[in-house]
Amino acid sequence: MKLDTMMEAIEVLARERGVAVDTILDAFANALVAAYKRSPGAAEEARVTIDPDSGEVIVYAQELDEDGNVVSEWEDTPEGEAFGRIAAQSFKQVMQHKLREAKREHVFEMYEGREGDLVTGLVQQVDYRSVILDLGDAEAILPGSERIPFERLERGNRVKALILEVRNEVKGAQIVVSRSHPDLVRRLLELEVPELTDGTVEIVNIAREPGHRTKIAVISHDPNVDPKGACVGARGSRVHQVVNELRGEKVDVVQWRDDIGQFIAEALGPAKVKEVHIDEETKTADVVVSEHQLSLAIGKEGQNARLAARLSGYKVDIRSDNEGAGTEETVAAEVPPVAAPTADEAATADAGGVTDLAEPVEDGSAEPEPVATAGEGDDEDVMSATAGEDESE
């Protein structure tokens, strides 16, 4: 029995579906075995061989013993149109199953090990539990817990997300993505800032409250490159691309400082800090601000101070320099501190040390440098410089 025409069709199908010819031939052989067993006078067991060059098909009937071993084998290839029709029907069913399996394996192999990568997808389905994104060659699931709070996603929207996990399940590869993970901001910024890609500028740490505000600490490995300016871009062009993708979430870029007291002062921007007392034993920073800067340093519902604490890894106590006011805000760091990626460890103040920001700092300025901020809003704590210019949002 020869299948010259069938072999040509199999080769075309293999190219169109991206499946190996051997996989299709194996499926076809299984279909022929099933068709043989349904023909009159067929043996209970059989095997089929297909010559990939000539298309020659041979069916071998088998006799097995009680242990399943082959006792005897003989050629018993059926002839006639009935066998061909049954074989075609069986092949169609088996091939559909094989193609689904091959596609699942292909998708899993394509995305396996890509955790942390950025992907772009079209919103395909939205409900209260999850969002399904069409990635073109696969589908990804965005769980409700990984969505940006209060973000409105509609069918057809194009969004970027971070791959969290790739699982090979029975129903196929499942790609879980996130839009609330801090590393999403990192990946988005890397798309806009070449200095991050080539290693000139490095992100030391990220503190994020999805949908509200993100603070990013950056450091430059080239003394001629301003890390904050590189990330913000001319008139905020680079960081605004990230803000737009995050639907208006504010993004503050802070330069990492070796002096942890000065770094915390800048991380509390746009508030102007007068003094920072560092206790290395308890990892606590006692911050002193003028009375009219207190609410700005704390931020709406403590957000500004909370993010500064996460960014530095220190517990932050903020109080007014007006002793009679007796006002104090304490915010504990919720993530461990991240050391600056320098050869020698970031120098910090000794236990009980004081960084007096009313005195000139190393760059000769009398006040800490303002945080570069992008994002819209009219919160009272949004009074920072955007893209190197003093603006009020």
Tell me what the structure shows.
- With 393 residues, this protein is an alpha+beta fold.
- It has 3 domains: 4-111, N Utilization Substance Protein A, Chain:P, domain 4; 118-178, OB fold (Dihydrolipoamide Acetyltransferase, E2P), CATH 2.40.50; 182-390, GMP Synthetase, Chain A, domain 3 (2-Layer Sandwich), CATH 3.30.300.
- Helix content is 29%, strand content 29%.
- It has helices at 4-17, 21-37, 81-111, 182-192, 194-197, 227-232, 237-245, 260-267, 294-298, 303-312; strands at residues 45-50, 57-64, 70-75, 118-126, 130-134, 139-143, 158-169, 172-178, 201-209, 213-220, 250-255, 273-279, 284-289, 315-320, 328-331, 353-356, 372-374, 385-386, 389-390.
- A hairpin with a 2-residue loop joins β7 and β8 (172-178).
- α2 (21-37) packs antiparallel against α3 (81-111), α4 crosses α7 (237-245) and α8 (260-267) runs antiparallel to α10.
- Residues 333-352, 359-366 and 376-393 have low confidence and may be disordered.
Characteristics:
393 residues, alpha+beta, N Utilization Substance Protein A, Chain:P, domain 4, OB fold (Dihydrolipoamide Acetyltransferase, E2P), GMP Synthetase, Chain A, domain 3, 3 domains, 10 helices, rod-shaped, disordered C terminus
Summarize this structure briefly.
The chain has ten helices and 19 strands. With 393 residues, the protein is of the alpha+beta class.
